[in-house]
DNA sequence: GGATGAATTGCTAGCGCTAACATATACGTC
DNA sequence: GACGTATATGTTAGCGCTAGCAATTCATCC
């Protein structure tokens, strides 16, 4: 099939075409199209008209090569399908919308090698900055990030040493906070439900902080259950059933994310289990979805939007050279939300 | 703060640096790095080693300009936060992963002007193809798409005329199918709940098909309720309460998406309403989330992953010039899922 | 041994645009 | 009316890479 066949031999349009059509030099056309430098109102109008008539779209490839500037920010995150990263993106976009910068997303699926290749790919477009999830990367990835002369912001974790800048919460601390709240509420037989993802370092750190703080209270995780793949809501139900059948004495279930927590909550309600009396429940993330559930699940807000905002601000200000008083290590405070599934 | 300060005056690396480090011409380095043309095993090894030592990352900007080839596919969709587009992306990535092409996402938030500007922005990077949601665009956007000599696939709707190629379901038909199923099940007092989005053409078409088919059965939509913003699950509850208070005789509620449908379902279950006996419920999209709910909501699967796959296939094959027997207008069939909230 | 062709490597000329500088034109000023 | 000072436009030289061809090397053959 032929495409766009209404134009004959379609040689792609260039500045020269616009320049010829409007009777000024290419440079002037370039200036008009970028709103840079002084151009008289008359020629501006002429040029704009010509560009519009022709349907000219500037070639950023050439522009970027000539100017050595690319207004893209590489955003490298594990996934888009779990409600947490879209929120981060929202925060990023919010801030970048007020700058010439634009986010471009790369997905890693929690695979270090994929992260490395995505990073390589993105860096080959010479972006103005990088926002990347986590502090753990392959050696090669770390080397690339260090070797590149642009702002690099690692987000969603502050338990470690950043290459350049970092923004997020301490997951260890989040885990500890939850453990303390649980202990204080008098729960004594704790179960943990999470993902089978050795590579999800943030979940791991949360768990570490959790067990550590429990230990201080003389408690421990008495049973655990893990899943992978499938609908998190369904898995939450199934895992909850499994763990409660195996360990009927449990009186608290800590889920590594809100979605499986919600599944667990629905299961308990189905079974007529008294929540939070008989069993307490808590998830992690503070996703909006929870508010529509029959009972508000306890959770911990990780400040996702704020993380995105701060990270974008750091990149934007560094790219603009405006670093006066700029914080490059921002630790946000996770906020415990008791909801209605955790006794106070 | 100084960044990447372990290197002194950091002049960015170019092919020339690798060429000098490995003692061959730039051209040969280029060939090695792109796996193109004949290069002896010995030099290949030498070059690769030099590139790695230096930490060289090719400059795709320059490469793209020189070769006039950009292996990016612009994917322009309204949003990432409603579970439907991530699925489309999954299908797209799945197919593009087997090609040199890479998707780049642009978000429109359902705003035509935003769509236009995002499209302009993306086209200025001269992608190898465009996948764009919907068949409705501004005149300027349509002109751009027509004027560009690359494959353009419009997805998620086939009720209209595509610029080039299209893949998706007929939303009118989806609406009709649901209306017929409802009528056949004997429901007679129908309510509709949706979004306040005059610009969501697909929801509109679904509604049109729905009312049209209802009319054929001598039925009509007796009450409606709309929302915007906020948590869809919460809104679903609230709207359901509102509409049922206002029109207690309704015996079926058709929701324009699964999330508000799920909210409505939870509300009905809370209130002890017999579903699907007293009131039937149905949503739209077939999102995975539904399976974790206490009752399986009736819905209609829009074939999102398959849509993404097909669209990507069309772009990939057209870009590769392999158009033999290629379907460029693919209508997928929406699949009604009765679940447990629609009598049969 | 020199011709032959294939495999390997190098050279030249842009790709379309913009930074930096050079030139032209307008506008006051005394 | 000569001069400076803005303002407006044009010219030149690449940005870093690759297509297309030229040149070189090497093995092979009669």
UniProtKB/TrEMBL annotation, chains A, B:
Keyword field contains Iron-sulfur: no
All residue ranges annotated as the HTH lacI-type domain in the record: 13-67
Entry keywords, A to Z: DNA-binding, Transcription, Transcription regulation
Pfam families (UniProt xref): LacI (PF00356), Peripla_BP_1 (PF00532)
One function term, GO molecular function aspect: DNA binding
PANTHER family attached to this UniProt entry: LACI-RELATED TRANSCRIPTIONAL REPRESSOR, TRANSCRIPTIONAL REGULATOR
Protein name: LacI family DNA-binding transcriptional regulator
């Amino acid at each position: 099939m032929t495409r766009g066949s209404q134009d004959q031999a379609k040689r792609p349009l260039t500045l020269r075409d616009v320049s010829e059509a409007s009777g000024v030099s290419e440079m002037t056309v370039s200036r008009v199209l970028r709103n840079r430098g002084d151009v008289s109102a008359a020629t501006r109008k002429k040029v704009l008209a010509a560009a519009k008539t022709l349907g000219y779209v500037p070639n950023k490839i050439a522009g970027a090569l000539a100017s050595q500037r690319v207004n893209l920010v590489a955003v490298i995150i594990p996934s888009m399908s779990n409600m947490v990263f879209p929120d981060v993106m929202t925060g990023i976009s919010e801030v970048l919308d007020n700058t010439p910068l634009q986010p471009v997303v790369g997905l890693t699926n929690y695979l270090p090698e994929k992260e490395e290749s995505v990073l390589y790919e993105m860096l080959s477009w010479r972006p103005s900055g990088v926002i990347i999830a986590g502090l753990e990367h392959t050696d090669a990835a770390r080397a690339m990030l260090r070797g590149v002369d642009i702002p690099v912001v690692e987000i969603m974790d502050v338990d470690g040493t950043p290459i350049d800048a970092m923004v997020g919460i301490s997951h260890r601390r989040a885990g500890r906070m939850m453990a303390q709240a649980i202990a204080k509420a008098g729960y004594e037989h704790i179960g943990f439900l999470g993902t089978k993802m050795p590579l999800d370092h943030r979940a791991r750190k949360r768990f570490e902080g959790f067990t550590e703080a429990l230990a201080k209270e003389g408690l421990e995780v008495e049973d655990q259950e893990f899943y992978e793949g499938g609908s998190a809501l369904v898995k939450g139900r199934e895992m909850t059933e499994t763990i409660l059948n195996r360990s009927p004495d449990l009186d608290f279930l800590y889920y590594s994310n809100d979605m499986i927590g919600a599944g667990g909550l629905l299961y308990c309600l189905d079974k007529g289990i008294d929540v939070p009396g008989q069993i307490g429940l808590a998830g992690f993330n503070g996703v909006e979805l929870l508010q529509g559930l029959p009972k508000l699940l306890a959770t911990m807000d990780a400040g996702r939007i704020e993380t995105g905002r701060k990270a974008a601000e750091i990149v934007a200000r560094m790219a603009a050279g405006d670093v006066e008083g700029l914080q490059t290590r921002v630790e946000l405070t996770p906020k415990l939300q008791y909801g209605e599934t955790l006794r106070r």
